[in-house]
Description:
Blueprint: E1 4-7, E2 10-12, E3 18-24, E4 33-39, E5 46-52, E6 58-59, E7 67-72, E8 77-82, E9 91-98, E10 105-107, E11 111-115
Parallel strand pairs: 2-11
Antiparallel strand pairs: 1-3, 3-8, 4-5, 4-9, 5-6, 7-8, 9-10, 9-11
Amino acid sequence: xxxxxxxxxxxxxxxxxxxxxxxxxxxxxxxxxxxxxxxxxxxxxxxxxxxxxxxxxxxxxxxxxxxxxxxxxxxxxxxxxxxxxxxxxxxxxxxxxxxxxxxxxxxxxxxxxxxxx
Length: 117
């Protein structure tokens, strides 16, 4: 069982920044995909950003230019740096991981991000 533990959520004003962290219970060098999804109130879970073991990161159009995903394999950690936050970024953010293509998905417990003045 791959365990993921998130931290870093909270309340921030529009235009502000937050950094989310997610620590995996296994060596991240061997993990195929790590990333972030979010679930806004009353909506379905949606992709935010993912980073495969090799290759460029993938971002949702709504966060391009504002969010950055950073995968730190020696620390078994994936970060989501969120800048220029908007009220529509309010959601529960979930860390995501997949050991290999086609294998099971693993999820963290979620962390609340609220953007409000």
